[in-house]
Amino acid sequence: MAIAVDLDVLLAERGMSVGEFAEAVGISPANVAVLKNGRAKAVRFSTLEAICRVLECQPGDVLRWVPDEQQ
What we know:
Organism: Glycomyces terrestris
GO molecular function, one term: DNA binding
Domain HTH cro/C1-type: 7-62
Protein name: Transcriptional regulator
Number of helices: 5
Pfam family, one: HTH_26
């Protein structure tokens, strides 16, 4: 089981670059890459809140659960 992060889809839909997004959220582009590549072990609620504010979305638009069979 895994949690998938759909940041790249949301950024593409909004025409936003990783650099613009990172600056608006207040995290480094390297940390955005960690999130996008599924290597993050945790996300602070304050960061998730900032992501949702910047992308004007809900947490479920950013994160989704993927069963083992679908990985």
